[in-house]
Amino acid sequence: MQTKKKREGTVFRNGIARRWLLNSLGVMILLLAACITALSFVVQSYAYNGIQMTLVGRSDELPTVLSSSMKTVNEFNAAARSYTENFPDKNLMEVMAVSRTGKILSTSTGFAPDQTQTMPDYESAMHASSGYGYWIGKLTSGEKVMAITRVVRGANGAVLGAVRYVVSMERADRQITFVVLCLVGVGILIIALVTLSGLYFVRSIVKPIRALNATAEKIAQGNFDVRVKKDKNDEIGALCESINDMAAELGAAEKMKNDFISSVSHELRTPLTAIKGWAETIQSGGVGRETYEKGMSVIIRESERLSGMVEELLGFSRMQSGRMRLIMNKIDLLAELDEAVYMFTDRARTEHKTLIYDEEDTMLSPILGDVNRLRQVFINIIDNALKYTNPGGTVRVAAYEDDGFIRVVIKDNGCGIPAEHLPNVKRKFYKANQNVRGNGIGLAVANEIMELHSGSLDIDSQEGIGTTVIITIPTMKKLETNPELSNTTKIPSVTGRVQVVERKQDD
Fold first, then answer.
1. Distance (Å, rounded) from C-alpha 331 to C-alpha 494?
2. Three-state SS string across 320-376, please?
């Protein structure tokens, strides 16, 4: 429980929602802050430029309102006083008449001017060739203003004085502040909406993932009946389906494994019981020759049966680890097939079944293979054919060469395999007929062996009619001319030299 809580705490600290908030939302806040700052600067620049253009426009009327024929300072002083006193926009800006020495002569407000106030715009205008000066700053009273000064020259070009236009920036700054606050409000609203929508979206992902995690934990604990509810047809929905399919597959595999263990236990117990029983009978003494030979025959037969089971299990273990090894050599496939058929001749007769071997009149091309493994395949398939054939039935074995491949056909007229079981009969632990002895791994091992030989094992069956198994393996000549057919770690040599090969491991 403590470990689970610790894991949940780690998930929270490193969760998708938290990472999204720290990363995406953080970046968004920085971008919005940058945008608001830039827009604020633009708004301020636009407002200030507008006010400046207004002042410049007002100053451009001076040549009209002040006669260009003025020659003396007194004429300028009189005309400037008249202009400031009669200025029509006194409520918008203040106009000052300034002497050429920097003394304020008159103002549009009618109040006595502060002669100690610095006028950087006046100084700039007096020294500029254009006669124009501009300044933004604070007065001694603390009020922020914008000022423009225009120098007035006489008819002879001499400086007579200057006219100064001053406007308060308090109102403009308040408007700019209001706009900036509106932008900040819009930014906060955008962040809030994006955060809510993002959290909703993240939650729509996190919630099913948590459900998937809980389901996966239950599956890991062995509960293969649990399923994830699929709400949407998206990537998460596809993942839900995959998890459910995995659970179903694991459940089926678990059932087959349990059936396999039960089957193997039964298969091992039966011959062991027979061996033990006959061994105790013989050990007790007093048995006749006939009984003795019968007992030994049973012991030998059941021992061979046990040996076959062990070999099958070992082959399966090698197959599971992906390290099934083959000792490859040049062999005559017919010879190995002959021996396998001969092994079952007596058994077929005893079980009142007919085993027919259609021997090929001509020699078949040699192949490169593992003698013991191929014999294991033949024995397994013929054993299954006899196992699932009723008394009086027939099992037919034939071999022929076709286009560089040797095909071994084992056909019976037994009970057959139902169509729903046919696709799964080569899967490990799978048994189509639970009433017949076997552990469900023989065909899986046989299929693996044939794949390692660059061949195949194909099964065709109809319930109630019979089963046909076709074993296909390439000849040495086929491998030599088509090395891409090889399923081993290296292309087998066709010189007859023995090689040890293993299956390629998946990347």
1. 11
2. HHCCCEEEEEEECHHHHHHHHHHHCHHHHHHCCCEEEEECCCCCCCCEEECHHHHHH
Task: Summarize pLDDT for 226-259 with one digit per residue, the tens.
Answer: 888 777 777 778 888 888 888 888 887 777 677 6
pLDDT band at residue 500 under the 50/70/90 scheme: very low
Which of 364 and 501 is assigned the larger pLDDT? Answer: 364
Phi, psi of 226 (to 5 degrees): -70, 145
How much is the CA Rg of the chain, to the nearest whole Å?
51
Name the 3-class secondary structure at 280.
Answer: helix
8 Å CB contact between 499 and 493:
yes
pLDDT in tens, 60-86: 888 777 766 677 888 888 888 888 888
Total residues belonging to the chain? 507
The CATH code belonging to domain 244-321 is 1.10.287.130
Q: What are 186's two structure tokens? A: 């819009």
Helix (H) / strand (E) containing 33 = helix 26-59
Q: In whole angstroms, what is the distance from residue 274 CA to residue 321 CA?
A: 33
The label of the residue with tokens 């012991």 reads 299
Q: What torsion, rounded to 10 degrees, do the Cα atoms 216, 218, 221, 224 define?
A: -90
* Mutual angle of helices 371-387 and 333-343, in 10-degree steps: 40
Q: Tokens 């459940």 identify what position?
A: 251
In this structure, which CATH number among 3.30.360.10, 3.30.565.10, 3.40.250.10, 3.40.50.880 belongs to the domain 322-502? 3.30.565.10
Tell me how far apart the alpha carbons of residues 382 and 58 are, in angstroms, rounded to a whole number: 114
Q: Within 10 Å of residue 177's Cβ, how many Cβ atoms?
A: 13
Cβ-based neighbours of 461, under 8 Å, separated by 6 or more:
416, 417, 422, 467, 468
Tell me how far apart the alpha carbons of residues 198 and 204 are, in angstroms, rounded to a whole number.
10
**Quick check: 403 and 438 in contact, CB under 8 A?**
no
Phi (first) and psi of residue 432, to 5 degrees: -75, -35
Distances (CA, A) of 477 to 1, 174, 331, 494: 64, 95, 13, 8
Place of tokens 């030299």: 497
CATH T-level assignment (fold) for domain 60-168 = Beta-Lactamase (3.30.450)
Alpha helices in 60-147 (DSSP H): 62-65, 73-85, 120-127
